[in-house]
Amino acid sequence: MTADLVLRNVMLPTGRRADIVIAGGVVRHVGAAVRADETIDCSRLTCLPGAVDMHVHMRGGMQAEKEDWRTGTMSAVAGGVTVVVDQPNTVPPITTPGLLRARVREAEEHAVCGFGVNAGVVPGADLPGMYDAGAMAFGETFAAPSSYGEGLDPDTLKELFARIHALGGLATLPPQHRRLGRGRTRHGGGDAAPPLPRAGYVRGG
After folding, report:
1. Same-domain status, 98 and 136
2. Which domain holds residue 65?
3. What would the pLDDT profile of 108-117 be if each residue is shown by its tens digit?
4. Which of 27, 65, 80, 186 to pair with 147, CA 20 to 30 A apart?
């Protein structure tokens, strides 16, 4: 095998040292050395797998002044993230197959790393159509107010999750909850409850 690049004497996460062989921009082999056009001595370096960030908001479109696919994925790669999953908190919401496909096209044109695109979860969204259009998952699912509007109440969430389950899809949601009628707010978000430790959300509050 002839390679474009060999990273020699890399420390792997297992503690083993090896050479990493790269050809055509792809890691082809990890192990013994081969001939290469370029060789870099990595004796003092450790190689880690690229991270996958399952919860990003790439904005773009009408919110491009905040961030877009190019700037967001450049930031991801700079931090060692090689795949991002967009949980769209966008204007307009991703609620139809056409909007989902447009979002994917935008990512294909501008992203500098791997990506997935989720579909929005709101009443009236075309869940079957977006599933057939290739939505990776459904969500972010908002139980508290967001740019998608008011948070979804428990009965609506249950109905939407049942529909997603029937499709064979996956729903994703952040650790949010609401306490209605107590006049409490978080970030100006209506009746959203005050923050709880993340572990509390995992345990169910």
Report:
1. yes
2. 51-174
3. 999 999 999 9
4. 80
